[in-house]
Amino acid sequence: MSESRAIYGSNTGLLSDFPEPLRPALHLVEKTGSAEAGLLLLQFVAAFAHPDYMCNLAMLEPLPIEHKEAALEFFEFCLTSGLSADERAALLRFVEARLAQPPRGAARPR
């Protein structure tokens, strides 16, 4: 198991629901939101949450190195340790909450 590390500016309450290796990717999704890198990372994470979500791994190639490293750590954990049913459900809630948010700067309906 990897050692616990603080992620500057993260919502530690939210991230504490997830295994340590998943937290950097989830923090970057939170931090970058509707920016292209955040949306691509969200698609990647969503593919592990539920089989209805898919991600073309080639789309991750242009991501900044920080996002790539977080995705690699996320991927490695999911393949080697796996997610429990509770962790997968929490991840699905995390993903669906972000997918339901309007893009930043988008006009809200009145």
What does this protein look like?
- The protein has 110 residues and is an all-alpha fold.
- The chain has one domain.
- The chain has five helices and no strands.
- It is globular.
- The relative contact order is 0.17.
Major sheet attributes: none
Name the overall outline. Answer: globular
- Average per-residue pLDDT, rounded, comes to 85
Tell me the strand percentage band: under 5%
Number of helices: 5
| pLDDT < 50 runs, ≥5 residues | none
Helix content: 40-55%
First-to-last CA distance: 48 Å
- Using DSSP, what is the number of strands? 0
What is the domain total for the residues?
A: 1
Give the SSE order as H and E letters.
HHHHH
Which structural class matches the secondary elements?
A: mainly alpha
Q: From the alpha-carbon coordinates, what is the Rg to the nearest angstrom?
A: 14 Å
Give the helix/strand layout.
Elements lengths: L11 H4 L7 H10 L3 H14 L15 H16 L4 H15 L11
Helix pairs in contact: 2-3, 2-4, 3-4, 3-5
Which terms would index this structure?
5 helices, 0% strand, mainly alpha, 110 residues
In a nutshell, what does this entry contain?
Keywords: Plasmid. The chain is about 55% helix and about 0% strand.
